[in-house]
């Protein structure tokens, strides 16, 4: 096989990538809205970000435009920074309340 | 245009996947059944315990882990991810020339400044 | 560009300054840096040049533009921070262990804000949003042992990163529909999509809607406002002030640029109804919600929601061009100055009396006439009373919207400002009409430098209200 990676990506129709990414994204959104554990909510957010990455990579291959892939790099780096801060916040809360259930945090009413 | 289907897929095209799936399931069932039928069966108290040998397990596996592991892991992730910016740079090293090299030096310098900050802050000291 | 470099380098230097236990040096250093950045930015504004040249700058192959638009809003944000930071002296006095880090994070977040108003490429916009937001998550939780602060940080972080995902999905769909991240090229591509295109046009519409949701979250526009009161209440007061001024200015100015450059023209037909609905809802929820509050910080949170609504008027009136840019600029300047004054007073009172409900302000007029006066001027400006900067801010916004024919919206906004007067008067009544509680009637300590800054804040507010021409010609 001497196909380049964009060519391999283009062997599957673009709609499939869009549907797949949208499905992943929707699962992530549903998870954020229904789960009550901060760490699981956070994992769902990561799922959303990765759905975006897939979408960008697919568009980038179909458009033959590298900008989309560069954007993916930046999303990854920013997501790592977000993980660091987010887990830091969760650890800080765990030290104070010994739990990561968001329902316990009701000192500030919605 | 962009969204137009580039190839049409027939249901028959997915047959290899089905065959693969069937084979995988069949292998699992086959090996379980055959090992059950063929293998010798002897029961004893020692043989049925979860660990036949080694030292006795002590306590719960889910003990609190020192937050230092967490810090180190997070720092690893942070510095690890920055490497992805070096791949495009390395691939285009010749085209980017001296400017690109200086820019990457600056980038690494900023990362090193962060690393120096972490060391000065004493986060990597394991003892205290 | 110089402002970004200066802020980043001094933020880094500041981190290392913290090692020398020279805590007293840090605040003057940061203030000096901010003053220098403000000087560089304001002196660089070319008031005779073109209003904005969207695609001219050489920085990063045209991804960043430092035209007049970017410089003026950078100036507003840096000025706000400069005026806010003197009230952090209590952290210095208490010998807070992470003092240098807080200031550095603040400087870095300001870099994010500047990127959000000077971007020319959605990549930079995203990086700016994240630089600003991630810094704010940390600052929201900076009171580490206080559960309220922890909770505010967690809520802000979870909602914020959720929003980031939505914003990014929007950007990805826009990229799919137009094939570019560059604003000007995106504008061309959007105009080139035929109106009847069944594939790309819906994709672009969904992408734009998702971006609208994402930015709506960041500037706390209804119906994406629900995190605001909680986060504002739990966050340490100083950083709440920063959140409600700099973050809002950057968000609105950045989003205006996106809509103006890439989605002006006939695309406006698509997003205008959505934005109008958001505006009406935001104004209503912000103003009506503020009436019911008993906590001054929560009241200011709802008030900041309502101000996001007023600022959206300028986005609705986007077609009026220079008029609405000027309105955003003047309004965000007047609003920032008044909000900084209000939060400064709340912070000083909180430092001593340890509470931030209305009753905590009781009797302030007797114990601290200066503080009470500053708070009064701030509240009047936020309410939009004549002779304060807030009046002309609202005036410019309403006239821009009226020029574009949104008379109904303007009437609704005026009615809502009338509701605003009611709740802005409540802290004033608490300060002037009610006696202080037993045991807490000692004067609140205000440093000499802080008093000077407070007087400056009042002077700025009144100056903007008496002579709005002083900043005229920026746009």
TrEMBL record, chain A:
Localization: Cell membrane; Membrane
Stated name of the protein: NADH-quinone oxidoreductase subunit K
NCBIfam families assigned: PRK05715.1-2 (NF004320), PRK05715.1-3 (NF004321)
The gene coding this protein: nuoK
Domain of life (superkingdom): Bacteria
Top-tier EC class: translocase
Chloroplast recorded as keyword: no
HAMAP family noted in UniProt: NDH1_NuoK
From TrEMBL, chain B:
Annotated Gene3D superfamilies: NADH:ubiquinone/plastoquinone oxidoreductase, chain 3
GO MF terms held by the record: NADH dehydrogenase (quinone) (non-electrogenic) activity; NADH dehydrogenase (ubiquinone) activity; quinone binding
Name of the gene this protein is made from: nuoA
TM spans (from-to): 17-38, 69-89, 101-119
Subunit structure: NDH-1 is composed of 14 different subunits. Subunits NuoA, H, J, K, L, M, N constitute the membrane sector of the complex.
Organism taxonomic ancestry: Bacteria, Pseudomonadati, Bacteroidota, Cytophagia, Cytophagales
Topology of this chain in the membrane: Multi-pass membrane protein
One cellular component term from this protein's GO annotations in UniProt: NADH dehydrogenase complex
Subcellular location as annotated: Cell membrane; Membrane
HAMAP family (UniProt xref): NDH1_NuoA
Principal localisation: membrane
Entry superkingdom: Bacteria
Pfam family, one: Oxidored_q4
Protein name in UniProt: NADH-quinone oxidoreductase subunit A
Family, per entry: Belongs to the complex I subunit 3 family.
Entry-linked PANTHER family: NADH-QUINONE OXIDOREDUCTASE SUBUNIT A, NADH-UBIQUINONE OXIDOREDUCTASE CHAIN 3
Enzyme Commission numbers on file: 7.1.1.-
Recorded catalytic activity of this chain's protein: a quinone + NADH + 5 H(+)(in) = a quinol + NAD(+) + 4 H(+)(out)
Function field: NDH-1 shuttles electrons from NADH, via FMN and iron-sulfur (Fe-S) centers, to quinones in the respiratory chain. The immediate electron acceptor for the enzyme in this species is believed to be a menaquinone. Couples the redox reaction to proton translocation (for every two electrons transferred, four hydrogen ions are translocated across the cytoplasmic membrane), and thus conserves the redox energy in a proton gradient.
UniProt keyword terms in alphabetical order: Cell membrane, Membrane, NAD, Quinone, Translocase, Transmembrane, Transmembrane helix, Transport
UniProtKB/TrEMBL annotation, chain C:
One Pfam family here: Proton_antipo_M
Reaction(s) catalysed (UniProt annotation): a quinone + NADH + 5 H(+)(in) = a quinol + NAD(+) + 4 H(+)(out)
Subcellular location(s) per record: Cell membrane; Endomembrane system; Membrane
GO-annotated molecular function: NADH dehydrogenase (quinone) (non-electrogenic) activity; NADH dehydrogenase (ubiquinone) activity; quinone binding
Transmembrane segments: 25-45, 69-87, 99-117, 123-141, 153-177, 206-227, 239-264, 270-292, 299-321, 327-349, 370-393, 405-425, 445-467
Main location: membrane
Enzyme Commission number(s) from the entry: 7.1.1.-
Subunit details: NDH-1 is composed of 14 different subunits. Subunits NuoA, H, J, K, L, M, N constitute the membrane sector of the complex.
Name used for this protein in its record: NADH-quinone oxidoreductase subunit N
